[in-house]
Write a structure and sequence with these properties.
Elements lengths: L1 H22 L8 E5 L7 E6 L5 E7 L12 E4 L5 E6 L13 E5 L1 E8 L7 E11 L2 E4 L4 E5 L6 E3 L12 E2 L3 E3 L5 E3 L3 E2 L6 E3 L12 E2 L3 E3 L5 E3 L3 E2 L26 E3 L2 H6 L7 E4 L3 E2 L17 E3 L4 E10 L6 E10 L2 E3 L2 E13 L12 E12 L2 E3 L2 E18 L7 E11 L2 E4 L2 E3 L2 E2 L2 E14 L7 E13 L2 E4 L2 E3 L2 E2 L3 E13 L5 E8 L2 E3 L2 E4 L2 E3 L2 E2 L2 E11 L4 E5 L10 E4 L3 E3 L2 E2 L1
Parallel strand pairs: 21-22, 22-24, 23-25, 24-27, 25-28, 26-29, 27-30, 28-31, 29-32, 29-33, 30-34, 31-35, 31-36, 32-37, 33-38, 34-39, 35-40, 36-41, 37-42, 37-43, 38-44, 39-45, 40-46, 41-47, 42-48, 44-49, 45-50, 46-51
Antiparallel strand pairs: 1-2, 2-3, 4-5, 5-6, 7-8, 8-9, 8-10, 11-13, 12-15, 13-14, 16-18, 17-20, 18-19
Length: 584
């Protein structure tokens, strides 16, 4: 079986080889010649072609060259007096398709004057044309008559004219033709020349408060005064179109819509018109008198410009006044307008509540709160380019201290103090921009609880609390608006002092005495839910001082001051934004 398959494969290979040899058989070309004659501009040759399509050229002959008929030259003239000659090849079969079949020559022109022109009459000439080809001259059988333009006049002056001056007109020189005496240029008036102006004086520049004078002008040639002095109107103050501008840029005058503040009484009187515009005309010393904030019963909605002046020795003090348990204070109480360019130097704030009525279960004060900033307690508007300097001391004290001769029932008592202290602003929902706290700032909260039970005490169980909350910051205590470009560049110290004393005189007294501080503190802001941008600050110094006495097993101190921001820039940040703050 395998042998038969081998034989079949050999047979198939033989057949395939035969087909391949047949397909590759060599074709022999049969070339037939065809003579292509030369023309005037192209060579002749013999073309050999095979019926399979192959061809080649041999036996080239030179081109014949054109044979021009110089007896049949075509001549033309144009209006400009130019002539051209056209010569055509006369060889049979040469057409315009062949290069050089037609030659065109620009003829040389020979002019023969018949009559010379003058300045009053035209002249004439006869033009003839010719070409030279192969050293043979061929002439145009026709001529052309050419009209020659009149010759130009020969101008000469009839007189010298008169020169113009700054006081009299002049005259040009007249002219005519020397040949025909035709007038060519009539005399014309030359206007007076301008005066040569020089100033006789410098004049006077106008100001915002006085008119000016222009300089008078005279001619240095004739001495005539050309321009008399004229009055120049007063300039307009630059604050006319900008009502928020205090000073005129030109004269430094004060915008009259601003009311001058010169004394502490003037400051207090701002409350009469809280929508007005004011400026500080000079430094004011408040002499540590207990200050009543501007707009103590409302909001300031106007504009106050400190004009770079200083208010010194601001004091605000509350001690055990139940009518002032909850206060907002500062130089201004609440600002909904604009306060700018002001410096406050030396600030003292004292907010104290002592509760020590013996045998009294009812709280004397309960919860109290203070919102205080050196510039403004609560800012809803704009505080810009303001500074706090000198010594700034802000103190909040809360003491719960009671003595009971007889106690038999469980009691709970909480004294809560909330403080929003800011170096410039206590509580901000507006904008604080470009402000500086360069003061030696000390912010202190002091809390103390004490329970004393007398000999007749039974077995009372209760808890007594003093608790601090709020926010303390070098710029803003609690920020819910914007703080931009502000700086705290001096020592910033927050002292949290807590103490508790449980005195047990009775046989079974069981009070729990607790003092707590959950205040947020930061050099820029204690609490932030707004934005803080491009601010700089020193690091904060935080002092926590705790002490217990008496039955210490019944005392509790929780000094949990929050200072979460890096370097102490803020106490707590609640979904606020803080961008590009720098440590000094």
């Amino acid at each position: 079986m395998k042998k038969n398959l081998f034989i079949i494969l050999l047979a198939l290979l033989a057949v395939t080889a035969g087909v391949f040899v047949s397909a590759c058989a060599v074709h022999e070309h049969d070339y037939r010649p065809e003579i292509i004659n030369s023309t005037c501009s192209e060579k002749g040759y013999t073309l050999y072609s095979c019926e399979c399509g192959e061809s080649y050229k041999e036996d080239y002959t030179d081109e014949l060259g054109h044979e021009y008929d110089y007896d049949q030259i075509s001549w033309t003239w144009n209006d400009a007096g130019e002539s051209s000659a056209v010569i055509t090849c006369k060889r049979n079969g040469c057409t315009q398709d062949q290069m050089g079949h037609i030659r065109t020559y620009q003829a040389d022109i020979d002019e023969k004057i018949e009559r010379d022109p003058t300045c009053t009459e035209e002249g004439s000439a006869v033009l003839s044309a010719s070409i030279i080809v192969n050293s043979v001259t061929y002439k145009n059988p026709t001529t052309k008559k050419q009209i020659l333009k009149k010759a130009p006049h020969k101008e000469v002056s009839d007189n010298n004219g008169v020169k113009a001056t700054c006081t009299a007109e002049g005259l040009t020189a007249s002219a005519s033709c020397f040949v025909c005496r035709t007038p060519l240029k009539p005399q014309e008036i030359i206007p007076k020349v301008p005066h040569t102006e020089v100033s006789e004086d410098n004049g006077i520049e106008p100001t915002c408060t006085s008119t000016g004078l222009t300089a008078s002008i005279k001619c240095s040639v004739c001495g005539i005064t050309v321009k008399e002095q004229q009055q120049i109107a007063e300039l307009k103050h630059t604050y006319i179109s900008q009502e928020n501008q205090l000073h005129c840029d030109l004269c430094n005058g004060v915008n009259p819509i601003y009311k001058k503040i010169s004394t502490s009484t003037d400051l207090q009187n701002i409350s009469v018109n809280p929508d007005g515009k004011y400026y500080l005309a000079n430094d004011i010393d408040l002499n540590w008198s207990n200050w009543t904030p501007i707009c103590a019963n409302g909001e300031f909605n106007g504009l106050f410009d400190g004009d770079g002046k200083i208010i010194r020795n601001l004091k605000y003090s509350v001690s055990g006044d139940s009518s002032k348990k909850n206060v907002t204070a500062g130089l201004f109480r609440v600002n909904a307008g604009t306060i700018r360019n002001l410096t406050v130097n030396n600030v003292s704030v004292t907010y104290e509540f002592y509760e020590n009525n013996d045998n009294s279960w009812s709280p004397e004060y309960g919860s109290v709160s203070i919102t205080f900033g050196s510039i403004v307690g609560n800012n809803k508007g704009f505080v810009t380019d303001c500074t706090v300097s000198g010594n700034v001391s802000m103190n909040c004290t809360r003491v719960l201290q009671k003595y009971f001769v007889w106690a038999k029932d469980a009691k709970e008592h909480t004294d809560k103090s909330t403080a929003y202290f800011g170096g410039l602003v206590g509580y901000n929902s507006g904008t604080v921009d470009g402000c500086v706290n360069s003061s030696n700032g000390n912010y202190t909260t002091y809390g103390h609880t004490q329970s004393m039970v007398g000999m007749l005490g039974g077995s009372p169980v209760g808890t007594w609390y003093v608790a601090f909350f709020g926010s303390i910051g070098g710029v803003v205590g609690s920020n819910h608006g914007k703080i931009d470009n502000c700086t705290v560049n001096n020592k910033f110290t927050y002292n949290s002092n807590l103490s508790a004393n449980c005195v047990k005189n009775g046989p079974n007294a069981g009070w729990l005495v607790s003092t707590q501080n959950s205040t947020e503190a930061g050099t820029i802001a204690g609490y932030n839910s707004g934005s803080i941008r491009n601010c700089k600050s020193v690091e904060m110094k935080l002092n926590k001082n705790n002490s217990t006495s008496g039955n210490t097993g019944r005392t509790d101190i929780r000094n949990n001051v929050k200072c979460e921001g890096e370097h102490g820039f803020y106490g707590t940040n609640s979904n606020g934004s803080i961008d590009a703050s720098e440590l000094l």
